[in-house]
Amino acid sequence: MTQVTARTHAPRVSSPTIPRPRAAGPSAPDVAAQVAPAETPSSVRRHQTSWPVVAVDTALSLALALAATAFDLLAMEVAVATSTIWVLVSSAAGHYRKRELGESRGSRFRLVLGTGVRIAVLVLATSPWLTTIDPVALSQLVAALSVASAVHLLVAVRRRRPRVVLAGRPRDVRDAMLEMEANDNHDLVAVCLTRTSKVPTGDLPTYLGFDASPSAARQHQADAVVVLPGSRLTPAEVRRLDWALTGVGTQLYVGTCLLDVTPVRTRVFATGGLTLVRAVPPSMGGPRRWVKEVVERVAATIGLALLLPALLVIGLLIRIDSPGPAIYRQLRVGRDGRLFTMYKFRSMSSSADAERTELVPCNEADGVLFKIKQDPRVTGLGRWLRRTSIDEVPQLWNVIRGDMSLVGPRPALPDEVARYDTDPRRRLVVKPGMTGLWQVSGRSDLSWAESVRLDVRYVDNWSLGLDLAILARTVKAVLNHRGAY
Asked: Which region ranges are annotated with the description Disordered (predicted)?
């Protein structure tokens, strides 16, 4: 029997001891049997439903029903019945469940609105049989109920973040903690390590063994336990762990070895007695890519035409500020390794390329990049152009020509590409972009590894929606000037 313990910085768990599951076989102890008797299926339901949210939503629904009655839109009994049915349907659809791990605020919002739209359409479709009820007024009430619930649930989901316990090998736990630090959609409350280790866990309570996970989850009221890949758990042990966590109202998540693969690119299926996760190949062609190509070229053409007078003024100011051409031309590597000439407003002295060799010892970037925050080659006007990202605007001509996209990976220099290994070369399967994930996530403040990972994530998970999200974030990134130098 293994005592469930915590390190010196964590409080000692007062729950009963739980035996460590053995490798396999029928003689392995049943972890689920060790769950406290008080944890019954009804208690699990209490864990999973947010009753304060149900109470507030019920009050909102009744208030809207009374308002509909006051304006003589519907009879009192019809309005109250509709509001009551709405709450019951919402509960059945899972609108009131506590926030799940990885669930975005927008997903719950869309779920509630979608339910309201379907019910309203159903009411209108059955209007010929609703002889004593105004179907339009009833649909309006349903729409009002869905909007009120959606707004309320959006606030509730934002306020309540899932509490998570990490379980796995020390090295895997350390890496996962670093990943989760960049995400504020959860609260990490404890970790369970497979063996003793000096891996730093900060102030988090640290437990020994997977068999400690149910007690750790109960002790810290966790919503989820995440078992990391490489943990060497047998299928029988994972199943018993699922039973035990179900007893304490905690969800079990089992990690995969897939890196930066979005859920829409995964499929779960069973074959040969195995449950498998399939990674769907990323979209590299087809109608959606054609839409991207046409829309971006049209948008770039319109944008360049509208901005042309301002660009001419900026070009004149650059010529006045320092000797040399207003437009800087540089050879870059595009899709599939094809070379093209990229256009920018000149923000450095005309001899900047020749001076770069002398400044190599001052390079502040890692990897293959060359960046200096206080680069002496940057002109006075050029520093302002870089901070506002106006120096990038002439690349609209590259978009029109088809060399670049509005959104895509960072355009690389030929000498950088010559030093690429496997992962960075993944960027070259699509066109480079004027903006991208690395630009809206920190730009030059990011390390080489971080910028590569962001670009590869974009390539592998591309969608039109992702492009729109990046374009929206680009406005914020330009305004706060982060990483622009």
From this structure: 1-42
Asked if 209 and 196 touch (Cβ cutoff 8 Å), the reply is no
**What gap in Å lies between CA 254 and CA 101, rounded to an integer?**
12
> What was the pLDDT predicted at 414?
93
Domain ranges of the chain: 51-159, 161-255, 287-480
| Two tokens, residue 176 | 């996962």
- Per the CB < 8 A criterion, the answer to whether 383 and 347 are in contact is yes
Question: What digits encode the pLDDT tens for the residues 272-330?
Answer: 888 888 888 888 888 999 999 999 999 999 999 999 999 999 999 999 998 999 999 99
- State residue 143's pLDDT score: 87
What is the rounded distance in angstroms from the CA atom of residue 356 to the CA atom of residue 108? 52
Residue 215's contacts (CB-CB under 8 Å, 6 or more residues apart) are 4, 13, 15, 16, 18, 207
| C-alpha–C-alpha distance, residues 4 and 54, integer Å | 36
pTM of the model: 0.72
pLDDT exceeds cutoff 90 at 398: yes
Within 10 A of 420 (CB to CB), how many other CB atoms are there? Answer: 17
- The answer to whether the CB of 62 falls within 8 A of the CB of 83 is yes
- Bridge partners (DSSP) of residue 207 are 6, 192
pLDDT tens for 82-139 read: 889 888 888 888 777 777 777 766 777 788 888 888 888 887 787 777 777 888 888 8
| Banded pLDDT at 399 (limits 50, 70, 90) | very high
Beta-carbon neighbour count of residue 393 at 10 Å? 20
Q: What is the DSSP string of 204-223?
A: S-EEESGGGHHHHHHHTT-S
Closest residue by Cα to residue 401 from 334, 309, 336: 334
Query: Cβ–Cβ contacts within 10 Å for residue 223, how many?
Result: 24
Distance of CA 248 to the CA centre of its chain: 28
For domain 161-255, give the CATH number: 3.40.50.720
With H, G, I as helix, E, B as strand and everything else as coil, classify residue 203: coil
The closest alpha carbon to 288, from 468, 104, 452, belongs to: 468
H or E element that contains 192? strand 187-193
C-alpha torsion sign, points 388, 373, 440, 155: negative
Q: Phi and psi of 90, rounded to 5°? A: -60, -40
Residues 401-446 have pLDDT tens digits of: 999 999 999 899 999 899 999 899 999 999 999 999 888 887 667 7
Return the bridge partners of 227, or none: 167, 254
Q: In which order are the strands placed within the sheet that holds 163-168? A: 206-208, 187-193, 163-168, 224-227, 251-254
Q: How far apart are CA 199 and CA 193, in angstroms?
A: 10
Query: How far is 300 from 304, CA to CA, in rounded Å?
Result: 6
Strand pairing partners for 343? 329
